[in-house]
Amino acid sequence: MNNWPLRVLLWLALACPLLAQETEVRACYLTHVDSQVLDSRENLAEALSFLKNHGFNTVYVVVWARGLTLYPSRQMQEEIGLEQDPRFSGRDPLAEAVELGHQNHLTVVAWFEYGFAESYAEGHSRLGQLHPDWMCLGEDGKPVRKNGFRWFNGLDPRVQHFMLGLMKEVVAEYAVDGVQGDDRWPAMPSSGGYQQWLLRQYGADQRPAPQDPQWLAWRAQGLTRHLQTARRLLPKGWLISAPSIQGWAYREYLQDWIGWLQNDLVDWVHPQAYRRSLSDYQACLRPLLNQLTPSQLRRVAPAILIQSGSYRVKPSLLVEMVRWNRECGFGGEALFFYEGLRANHNELARALLEGPYKDHVPAPR
């Protein structure tokens, strides 16, 4: 029997190992809160080399938080008279991350962490102070504050135009591989949206309750239309969402991300499955296995919380979560955040490298 086709395939697999590999997202968030990784080029260079050498292939670099950009922005200079967060004056952390990340063969994505959120805790951003009419109003007519964040009105065309302007600026001026809107873009608390002009557009005879099904759907559709616009205006690179878990994301933040995924409005989704036991982690993600096709599941890479305050995930639990992701057919994971990998002599990074990240796998393109 002539087995030459089999021999050719075997030769190709040996000669071109990348052809035999599947791709998956192995992402890590780089933040400027509780971390100094973005405070110098040297810190960034060391971090990006570390991630590459420990099996990661993607980084999400924060560029928008607390009403400020971390990179020098012409739009922000025109809008508020301040081109970037003063903490980074004289440097461009995004330009450095793109350069150094690509040198390490990492996919580099601009992470718009705050999205439509205006500020956190009791602070108020300069942007919010200059544009009080942009705020998201609740039933009481006051700006909505949810989970510590004060919000802009994500259905206001001016707010949408502003956010798309920042994203277009980044895509045009930096060689980023995509943008991510986190769980706050496009999003808005379902307790908000009670501006009179918006209620008139909705056309209700009476003021609807926040959880009224039709009122939820109408506002969610408005955010989806905004995402459709972003998809059209940002054709270059990945467009990524990292929403709350399914169901909660829709009821509380008007995010119909299952629909976004099914209609190809986003390339990747990182549902924030921030649970501290394997059973809870599995429970919040398991419904997706019946709702999505195998190809759609490959575009879901759950976000895993590895550190927050005094909490740090155990290495064994992190490895179990990652392995369960593979068993389910998910396309990888995104770990929040970098400093958790370095604690206790890099124990989490070492556990991954000795386990599911032992072999290098490229990011999808």
CATH architecture: Alpha-Beta Barrel
Give the class-level CATH name: Alpha Beta
For CATH, the homologous superfamily is named as Glycosidases
Order of helices and strands: HEHEEEHHEEHEEHEHHEHHEHHHEEEHEH
Which descriptors apply to this entry?
TIM Barrel, 15 helices, 365 residues
Explain how this protein is built.
This protein has helices spanning 4-15, 41-53, 74-80, 93-103, 126-130, 157-173, 196-202, 213-233, 248-253, 257-262, 278-285, 288-291, 294-297, 315-328, 338-354; strands spanning 25-30, 58-62, 64-65, 68-69, 107-111, 117-120, 145-146, 149-151, 178-180, 238-241, 268-269, 303-305, 307-308, 311-312, 332-336. The chain has one domain (22-354): Glycosidases (TIM Barrel), CATH 3.20.20. The chain is globular. It is built from 15 helices and 15 strands. Residues 4-21 have low confidence and may be disordered. The strands form four sheets. An eight-stranded parallel sheet has the order 11-10-9-5-2-1-15-12. It is α/β, with parallel strands linked by helices and 365 residues long. A hairpin with a 2-residue loop joins strand 13 (307-308) and strand 14 (311-312).
